[in-house]
Structure formats: structure tokens, C-alpha cells
Amino acid sequence: MRFVALWASLIDWEKLMSINDELYDAIVFGERETVVEIVQKAVENNEDVIELLNVTMIPALREVGEQFSTGEVFVPEMLVSARAMQGGIDIIEPLLAKSGHKPLAKVCIGSVKGDLHDIGKNLVAIMLKGSGFEVDDIGVDCQIDDFDAAVERGAQVVCLSALLSTTRDAMRPVADHFSDRDEVKVIVGGAVITQEFADEIGADGFGLDASDAVRVVRDCLGLDAATA
Amino acid sequence: MMTPRECFHAAMNHEQPDRLLIDMGKHIGSIHRQAYVALREHLGDDSMVNEKKILDRMAQTVVPDESLLQRFDIDFRWILPNWVQVTERDDVPGYVDMWGVPYKAAGNWDHCVVDGAPLREATVDNINDFQWPDPQDPEQFRGLREKAKPLFENTDYVIGADAIKAGVFMNALQMRGYDQFFMDLVIDKPFAEALMDKILATLKEMWSRYMEEVGPYVQIVYLTDDLGSQSSLLISPKLFREMLKPRIKELHDHIKSLADVKLMFHTDGAVLPLIDDFLDMNVDILNPVQTSVTGLEDTLALNEKYGDRLCFHGAIDVQQMLPNATTEELEQEIACRIYDLGRNGGYILAPCHNIGHDIPPENVVTLFEKARQLGRDPAGLKSLVETGTSYFRRQ
Known about the structure:
heterodimer, A: alpha/beta, Methyltransferase, Methionine Synthase (B12-binding Domains), Chain A, domain 1, 2 domains, B: alpha/beta, TIM Barrel, four-stranded antiparallel beta sheet
């Protein structure tokens, strides 16, 4: 009985009861039409869309990100889930703005000095967006000026991506450029990036993959670890 | 002493040749033009003049000078299909390839990046209206017979037919847009199938003409695609087997019906889960055996499991090892890969990818010199393998 009481005290019953299972599953399984239908109905019923976002939608995409990290799902499934979620976001975005809901923070992401394939960077952008951040994707072949401009536009976190070792070194001057600005965090990731390299160039964080990137961005901004 | 071509035939039959086969100078296996200049300066070799003779425009690699291939004792000579139906862009520095995929130059032509997707808005109904490459273009293979025949008749090198860029999957991703095609594979299969079928039909026709020209003279053909990322596959094995495998197999079977060749298949990334499928697809040689990715680090285990049925090409990592290894670490790494993969034939040592300008020229020279030296006695490398300083164990 003591165990049950203890366990019961640990569960946030309010949160648990307010997860919309049908919507959660529709995002996890990438069923966009179902997501749109459920969210539309929720809006028509004046449901709390901020709660829908934070309690159901973001955790659903987080689960997909974790499944991607563990190799249960792959790039197509992750993109299809993000697309499904976007179907719902498109409906509630105007309402979020009207209610004064703000994104967690603004981040910019770009591949340094060009890279051959940018699918990894795109997956990170999707996960960050789906986790409540505003994402300014500045593309590939980015120079310092491009990151500067993004910071001028409000980015608090600069996410750098590099696939090739020939372009990895281009991260160093970007990290140096922002090193005396405590309010701008620099996060790095990509196929050739290691924690060691991140430490060497003075980056504020290193993300292993798309799902991990969200954790790292939250960490460097001092946000609590996300829980389901 | 066996000739390179004799060694190749032996190695491909999993018989130990009397020398290790070493390759360099093809698509996804040559030297970036800046690295080439650095190498020339390091060697003090004025005969190296090809820094502007571009092999692959996207990666800005060069066609190595014959003198360098001889200096490094390279066993292969590659026939390169001509770049055709390419248009130069006038909006930005760059070009549009024969598949209609636009590229823009990055970093003052350091390399080029894909810059758009010509079939992003296409549908099943209008996909054939697109300006597909002309598979009957006489320029594509012009002059190749004249190159291949004398090489075959007058030298002992292994003659290879280099790839027609790009593979079934890569072309689909680039023509449709990466994000969109990955999703098409799951939520718009009719479009994904129609696109890949059209690419496949085009490639089959091109390879028919290619093999008409060089088929009697080449021993190996190279095909490229990318199925893996650093730690995983890009798509699930189930989806691969449903959507990609039958089509890539059809291309492989078609080519093998045209010429008596060994088929080398390139895929970057962590593709260990698909190797049995590659065997089904009539792949003879797997390239590049990227040892810096999940599942392919242990080349001994790889050879134990597959070495009786599959040959390996590559295994010299350019992503992390070659740019950063000390001379001792590089020697140990070369010894390891030769020992793991080369004791029963079946191995061609090569850099896993292009040699970029982050790789010190000293390491390039050490690679080929040590490979030739250590390759004389793969079985005798045991003590170096066990006691040497490993770059990857440094991590």
C-alpha cells in the first residue's frame, strides 16, 4: 500500500489524463489527415490548444525522435510524423499567436561552408521545431555573416552542422566569433563531429543526432529536461 | 609474379594473390584538386599536372596523372563516362546535370552542393513530361572503346568501368528532393515507384550502350548509391526490400548480362544489416567498408561472416582516420585492414572516399607506400596488428 501511495504521488495525474491518445498515436504513426481532423475538432470545441501542444503533440514527436535514435524508425517515418504534426500546427498556430504563446526560444541552424548532403541538418530542424522552438534554417554553405544575421533576427542558439571533415574546421571561426557573447549559445553536430572537437572549439554543446540536439539546446538554455 | 589482372581474378575467387590489390583514381576514390596540388608540392613532382582535369565536378576531384598512379603502384585503370547534357548556370556559379539536378558551387568551387529538385512538384501523371536525359546520346561514351581496348591489350592493369552518376535511389532523392522522396516511399508509393522505374529504365539503356563500347575490355564495373548514415540505415530494411532492392537488382542483373564483369557497389554508411541483401543483388564487391560507422568497425568479423561470398574494396577511412592519424597509427590501421580482409583474397585496399584537402600529403604517401609494403604478406601482419598503436582505439 505504501508503494502504491508513493507511486501515485509521483504521477502527475492531471497531465496523464489529458494526453489525447488518439492524437498522440496519429502523430507517432504519421497519419496527417487524422491529426488534422482531431485538432480541428479540438479547436471547434474550444479546447486548450497550448495544452494540446505541450501535453500531446510535442511529446509524441519526442517519442518519434527517441525511436529514431534507437533505430526503431528511420528517416521516412520521422519525416512523415513531422508532416503529420505540422498539419496540426498549421491549424493552431494562429491561435497560439493570439493567446500570446511564445516559442521556447529561437534557434538558427545551418551547415557551415557547404556540405554535400543536408538531410541530418533538416531532421534536427524538424525536431527542434516540433519541440516548441522557433527555427530559422539558414541552409547550407553558411558564412559567419549568415549566422550573425540570424542572431540579429533573434536567434539565441546557433546550431552548426558539418558532414565532411573538410568543412568541419569552418565551425571554429563561427564558435570564436560568438565566444564573447554569453547570450548566444553555439551547438555543433554532424557525422564528423565529436564531443572532443566541440570542447576544442569552445562550443556550448554537441548533439549526437536529431533527438539529442533538442536535449542539448534545452540544456544550454537552462530549460528543464523535457518529460513525457 | 602475378599481374594485377591475374591478382584480381584470384582475389575475386577468394584465392590469395601474391600481391595486395590497391586502387585509386575513380569516382568516390580520387583526390581533391587542392589536395592534389599539396601532394605535388610535397613530392616535388612536376609531372603531376592534372589539378584542373576534373573527374567529378561535385566533389572537385581530379583524374590523377599516370605518373602518380605508377608512383603509387596502383593496380587499376578506370574508364570514365563523359559528362554530357550538362548546362552551366548563369544565376550562380554551378551547373545542372543530365538529370536536371541543379548544383551550386560552394566555397569558390571547393565542391558543389545540390541546389533544388526538378521533380519536387511532379505527379505520376506528368512525370514523363520532364526532360529526361537522352540515353542514346552518342557523346556519353564516345572515345571510351579507344581508351579501354589498348589498356586491355597492352597493359596488365585491372580495367574498370567507372560509374554513371547517380544510382537509382540517389537520383530519386536528388530529383524529387530528399525530404519529399523519403516521404513518398511511405505515403506516395505509386509516385516513388514511377520515378525509380523511369530512372532505372534510363540507366539500363545507358549501361547497354556503355558495355557495347567497353564491355569486352573491363573486368569490373562500379555503381554507386547511399543507403546508410553514420549510425544507421536511411530507410528500414523492410522498406529497402520492398521499394529499392528489386530495382537495383534489376540494374545489376542487366549489366551482368551484358559483360563478364565483377560488380562493385558503393554505399556509404552503416549498411551491415543489408549485406545479405547485397549478395541477393549480385554484388561481388562491397565498397567502401566505411570503418568509422556503426557495424563496420570490425572488419575481421565482417570477413569471417561474409568473406567467402563477398569481396571488399576500401576500408581506409578518410573521414576521421586519414586526416588525423600519426604515421604509426596509419601503419597499424593499414596492417589491420589488410590482415582482417586480405588473407584469403577478396580485398582491394583503397581510400573509403575522396582524399580531401584536410588529409596531410604525408599521410597520402604513407598510405600507398605502406599498403604496398605490408600487402606482401597479410598473414605476417599479426604482431603489428596486435601491438601497434590504433587510431580508432584512441577515441
